[in-house]
């Protein structure tokens, strides 16, 4: 079986790494891939960028690719699945209509309300004055969101009315490009965030292990939002009782409502939850793809061959599959980022020490790297250093020991990944 993965981040490296563990996988291609994917045995990078649908389609047909797996949200929102379907190519990832669940926060909020999915109270605005007036009437803290795709950075948690109003102005003035045509203003929820990714074939939906991301750049969850600075799985706060509620109150309702709208959703449906101190949950957002860096801690624990699950989704036979099998233990990943991220940062910094990190048993997923004569940085989030152990203490210890081996100029990482774990072990 030959698979083509669209994307160039740590998530795509993790997917390629996992697929290549199966004897059923002959070769994996990555478009465009990164310095990590090109180094995997039986994996080849392509020159095609993620939105070059024609080039990707031509290669898939010429090479008789059995399955295309789309990693990032942007090509999904732009309709890559629809385009490839029209060319007779099999794709794991929702159509443009399904990808609206991430591409438009306003659309997703309306779907949640229609489906009766627990979510934060919100209002949508196209006018700056009306939005600022609403903020003033609601008070702070409050959450301001750019409606469209903003690489995980279009959410501002404002502690004051003034900060919220400034965020409204910045979004409407184009800080997040076309993502700022609409502004969604939500009530502020307290608690812990948990990511629950689920596999869907349009009818049946099955959750993967819950994971907990660390969105803020600073230790103690301070500073600006990022694409994610580290994660661990399985998140203990998502108890079996809570996961059963998420299945019925979130995933089953979402899929039924999507079907009622004529949307045949096949791929990953990712629910970002806020769990209150009392143990109740609400959905903060939906995403239409594998989470990053959650994928980098979920896939190392997966026992069931990944390609079997993906094919079951694409062929709408997920209900026939046995329960998803998992390894015991825990996984944790630490993101090594470029200095200045999530703001302005420099590229092309030489990376050393990865072999030493691997020798400790860690897995190093490349996110923003490029391999020429040397391995160099090529993005804001550069590496995901993942440890796996019998418990969180072992997983975190392995990850952080491996991080200490790696160096590049300006390298920054949070030293408190997993700080919310009340009981280590």
Report the helical percentage: 25-40%
Strand content: 25-35%
- Residue windows where pLDDT falls under 50 for at least 5 positions: none
* End-to-end separation: 39 Å
Strand order, biggest sheet?
Answer: 3-2-1-4-5
By DSSP, the count of extended strands is: 22
Number of helices: 13
Largest sheet: 5 strands, parallel
Look at the helices and sheets and give the structural class.
alpha+beta
Give the CA-based shape.
globular
Rg over alpha carbons:
20 Å
Q: Look at the structure and give the mean pLDDT.
A: 95
What does this structure look like?
Belongs to the GARS family. This protein is of the alpha+beta class. Helices cover 30% and strands 26% of the residues. It has 13 helices and 22 strands. The strands form six sheets. A five-stranded parallel beta sheet has the order 3-2-1-4-5, with helices on both faces. A hairpin with a 5-residue loop joins strand 16 (266-275) and strand 17 (281-287). The mean pLDDT is 95.
Summary of the model, kept short:
By secondary structure, this protein is α+β, with helices and mostly antiparallel strands. The protein has 13 helices and 22 strands. The strands form six sheets. A five-stranded parallel beta sheet has the order 3-2-1-4-5, sandwiched between helices. Strands 12-15-18-22-19 form a five-stranded antiparallel beta sheet. A four-stranded antiparallel beta sheet has the order 6-9-7-8, with helices on both faces.
């Amino acid at each position: 079986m030959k698979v083509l993965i669209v994307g160039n981040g740590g998530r795509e490296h993790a997917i390629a790494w996992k697929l290549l563990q199966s004897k059923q996988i002959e070769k994996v291609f990555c478009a465009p891939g990164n310095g990590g994917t090109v180094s995997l045995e039986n994996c080849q990078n392509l020159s095609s960028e993620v939105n070059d649908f024609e080039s990707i389609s031509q290669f898939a047909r010429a090479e008789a690719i059995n399955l295309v797996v789309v990693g990032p949200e942007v090509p999904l929102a732009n309709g890559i699945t629809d385009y490839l379907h029209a060319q007779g190519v099999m794709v794991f990832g929702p159509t443009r209509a399904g990808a609206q669940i991430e591409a438009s926060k306003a659309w997703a909020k309306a779907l949640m309300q229609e489906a009766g999915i627990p979510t934060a109270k919100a209002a949508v605005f196209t006018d700056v004055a009306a939005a600022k007036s609403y903020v003033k009437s609601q008070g702070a803290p409050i959450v301001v969101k750019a409606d469209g795709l903003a690489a995980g950075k279009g959410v501002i948690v404002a502690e004051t009315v003034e900060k919220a109003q400034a965020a409204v102005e910045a979004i409407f003035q184009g800080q997040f490009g076309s993502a700022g045509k609409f502004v969604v203003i939500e009530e502020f929820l307290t608690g812990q965030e948990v990511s629950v990714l689920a596999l869907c074939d349009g009818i049946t939906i099955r959750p993967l292990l819950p994971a907990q991301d660390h969105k803020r750049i600073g230790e103690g969850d301070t500073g600006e939002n990022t694409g994610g600075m580290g994660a661990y799985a399985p998140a203990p706060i998502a108890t079996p009782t809570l996961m059963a509620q998420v299945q019925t109150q979130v995933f089953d309702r979402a899929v039924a409502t999507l079907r009622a709208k004529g949307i045949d959703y096949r791929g990953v449906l990712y629910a970002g939850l806020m769990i209150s101190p009392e143990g109740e949950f609400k959905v903060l957002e939906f995403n239409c793809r594998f989470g990053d860096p959650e994928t980098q801690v979920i896939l190392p624990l997966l026992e069931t061959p990944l390609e079997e699950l993906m094919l079951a989704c694409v062929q709408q036979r997920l209900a026939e599959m046995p329960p998803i099998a998992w390894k015991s233990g825990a996984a944790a990943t630490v993101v090594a980022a470029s200095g200045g991220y999530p703001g302005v940062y420099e590229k092309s910094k030489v990376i050393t020490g990865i072999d030493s990190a691997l020798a400790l048993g860690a897995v190093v997923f490349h996110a923003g790297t490029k391999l020429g004569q040397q391995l160099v940085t090529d993005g804001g989030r550069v590496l995901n250093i993942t440890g796996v152990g019998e418990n969180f203490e072992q997983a975190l210890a392995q990850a952080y020991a491996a991080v200490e081996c790696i160096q590049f100029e300006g390298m920054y990482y949070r030293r408190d990944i997993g700080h919310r774990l009340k009981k280590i072990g």
